[in-house]
């Protein structure tokens, strides 16, 4: 099976880095504090006593306007039941509107009761019976009706606009960057095959990437104001002219890296193996490397790796504060890596939708995706190149020492190599009798005058006081890569020899002082 680096180098037919799903919230800055709320009701709306009842009248008028607008435009209105899949219901209507074309239209208005903070007022303590009581204000959670406007837009394709009739009248918007890129490709005449929420192939990959890079905050703001003029709103034109204008803020921002393979079966099989090899990706040290953020003891969030394999495509996720990065194999064709930023403050970036914040979030997501893919490619053990393989398997002379050829594939040689690689961390080296004890199946001669068989990998032999030869394994950085079948490999936090028969050759206490004395003891073996 090809390793990860080989798949990325030789079997990727399309690479696309783009903004994926975008979830925004629109808010009116002047209605976020008590003073602004009272000024709005008293000066702008003309209520003598600013109270929650005044907001109720504005909300009732807005609900009536929504139903009247839906009737005049022949838009179906549906009340969603608890747990009902809203997107599944609206998708056929959006697809029908896309086939019809035009300048965009609302295809469905859904009503669902959800929890949200709303402004409420109550009489101050001691003024319950006063003719003109002083009102105290605060935000409280309440279950209120929300209106879902499912629509099709010529620029963005399918989207939805959610709001409610209670002050401060927030608006939530859901958009998809991949759908926007598909619409732009269609307009530019660039042929492509769609993947679910992405691209499977494209006639001009370079032009596609330029389109994806062109998406910015201006396209989002254009969408908002285009539909804000068309949809019913509790704020009138006079309110907007008075300064009660919506601002956009990020609630969720996804940046994706999609790599489509020409061998989907091999890619899927490798990804499942990749999950098992990276179960520690959620540890703080790994998360710090992926997101390029410093993690200390007081950093909030849980450090965990989440693997989902039941009922869905295999998926692996790790978390940093409120954000996360996930990786999965999409539609058996493409490796999708996504960084999901749920709180821009996690990375020291502002929440308002501006060009500066957009570019900063995009840079964070692209860098995190690339670092994860690079780390996985580096961790994978590649096949040896021709030069390295030749260096290891043919005779060589290093510093005046002749090293015979390594008979690659011979059981005795491979077993000795597996044992040697287990001692590469020992600076003082090891002796021939120790290797004999650890490799009983290899029939290695324990004769002191005999040249140890591991000289074929470039060992250093020198006479010791007792006639034994101390051996230091080669420092070649390519040895472990060139001999993947005999290299020990970490799995689940432990080291496992590559050849199963050798696991029975190690005595239980082979590393104690009696068998492996440290410098300063009476033994001459090092």
Write a brief structural summary:
The protein is an alpha+beta fold. The protein has 3 domains: 1-22 and 250-380, no CATH class; 29-168 and 215-245, no CATH class; 386-504, no CATH class. It has helices at 4-10, 34-44, 52-72, 86-100, 177-188, 205-214, 217-228, 237-241, 264-277, 284-291, 355-379, 386-393, 411-421, 432-438, 479-482, and strands spanning 12-27, 77-79, 105-123, 135-153, 157-164, 171-176, 192-195, 198-202, 247-261, 305-308, 315-320, 323-330, 334-341, 396-398, 401-403, 430-431, 460-463, 469-472, 489-491, 494-496.
Classify the secondary structure makeup into a structural class.
Answer: alpha+beta
Contiguous uncertain segments of 5+ residues = 446-526
What does the largest sheet look like?
11 strands, mixed
Number of strands: 20
Domains (count): 3
Envelope shape: elongated
Q: What is the topology, as strand order, of the major beta sheet? A: 2-3-4-5-6-1-9-13-12-11-10
Oligomer: single chain
Radius of gyration: 33 Å
Count of individual helical segments: 15
Helix content: 25-40%
- The proportion of residues in beta strands is 25-35%
């Amino acid at each position: 099976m090809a390793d990860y680096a080989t798949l990325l180098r030789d079997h990727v037919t399309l690479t696309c880095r783009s903004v994926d799903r975008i979830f925004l919230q629109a808010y009116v800055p002047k209605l976020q504090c008590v003073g602004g709320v009272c000024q709005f009701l008293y000066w702008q709306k003309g209520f003598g006593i600013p109270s929650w009842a005044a907001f109720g009248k504005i909300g009732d008028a807005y609900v009536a306007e929504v139903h009247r607008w839906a009737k005049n435009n022949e838009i179906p209105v549906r009340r969603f039941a608890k747990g009902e899949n809203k997107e599944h219901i609206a998708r056929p209507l959006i697809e029908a509107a896309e086939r019809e074309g035009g300048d965009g239209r609302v295809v469905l208005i859904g009503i669902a009761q959800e929890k949200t903070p709303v402004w409420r007022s109550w009489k101050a303590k001691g003024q319950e019976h006063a003719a003109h009581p002083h009102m105290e204000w605060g935000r409280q959670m309440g279950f209120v009706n929300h209106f879902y406007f499912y629509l099709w837009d010529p620029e963005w394709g399918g989207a939805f606009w959610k709001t409610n009739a209670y002050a401060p009248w927030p608006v939530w918007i859901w958009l998809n960057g991949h759908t926007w890129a598909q619409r732009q490709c269609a307009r530019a005449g660039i042929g492509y095959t769609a993947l679910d929420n992405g691209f499977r192939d494209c006639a001009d990959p370079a032009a596609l990437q330029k389109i994806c890079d062109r998406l910015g905050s201006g396209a989002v703001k254009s969408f908002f104001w285009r539909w804000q003029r068309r949809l019913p709103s509790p704020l009138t034109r006079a309110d907007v002219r008075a300064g009660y204008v919506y601002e956009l803020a990020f609630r969720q921002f996804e940046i994706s890296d999609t790599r489509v393979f020409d061998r989907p079966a091999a890619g899927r099989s490798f990804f499942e193996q990749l999950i098992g090899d990276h179960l520690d990706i959620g540890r703080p040290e790994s998360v710090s490397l992926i997101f390029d953020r410093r993690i200390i003891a007081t950093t909030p969030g849980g450090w965990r790796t989440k693997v989902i394999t039941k009922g869905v495509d295999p998926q692996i996720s790790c978390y940093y504060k409120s954000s996360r990065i996930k990786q999965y194999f999409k539609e058996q064709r493409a490796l999708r890596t996504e960084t999901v930023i749920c709180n821009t403050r996690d990375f020291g970036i502002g929440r308002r939708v501006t060009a500066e914040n957009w570019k900063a979030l995009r840079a964070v997501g692209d860098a995190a995706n690339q670092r994860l893919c690079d780390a996985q490619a580096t961790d994978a053990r590649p096949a040896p190149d021709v030069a390295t393989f030749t260096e290891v398997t043919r005779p060589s002379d290093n510093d005046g020492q002749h090293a015979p050829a390594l008979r690659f594939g011979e059981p005795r040689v491979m077993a000795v190599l597996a044992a040697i690689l287990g001692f590469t961390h020992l600076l003082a080296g090891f002796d021939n009798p120790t290797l004999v004890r650890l490799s009983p199946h290899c029939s290695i001669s324990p004769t002191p005058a005999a040249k140890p068989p591991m000289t074929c990998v470039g060992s250093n032999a020198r006479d010791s006081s007792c006639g034994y030869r101390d051996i230091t394994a080669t420092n070649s950085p390519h040895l472990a890569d060139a001999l993947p079948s005999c290299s020990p490999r970490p799995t689940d936090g432990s080291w496992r020899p590559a050849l199963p028969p050798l696991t029975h050759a190690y005595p239980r206490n082979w590393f104690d002082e009696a068998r492996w004395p440290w410098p300063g003891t009476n033994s001459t073996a090092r």
